[in-house]
Prior knowledge:
The protein is an alpha+beta fold. It has one helix at 2-24; strands at 35-42, 50-55, 77-83, 85-92, 98-105, 110-115.
Amino acid sequence: MNRLFAHGLAAVAVLTLAGCDTITGGPLTSPGQPTATLVIINGSDADLDAVVISECSAMSYGFNRLSDTDYIAPGEARSFTLSAGCWDVGSGQFGGGEAYERMTLDAGDVMQYTLD
């Protein structure tokens, strides 16, 4: 019975950890996978305070990929290295506008996404 209980706990732990990616957005790159570059450009007249990026299979956009004190000023850009594939991307300003886009990046791509 102890062995069955231990296997059950291990299964719950694996499922819990796997489920974290659906909440956090998961890692931006996977080992051994080809990568692409996503460039977020601030074409608006206000600071972009948040950038969320998650694999298309995730249940949410995840957490802000900018640090707590970081932002993208008007006219500036920030680059992110992602594994090639399908990504949901969002960006916005606290108390202001936001935009969301689903995009597919092929290996070696440099894709620009501008928030106006």
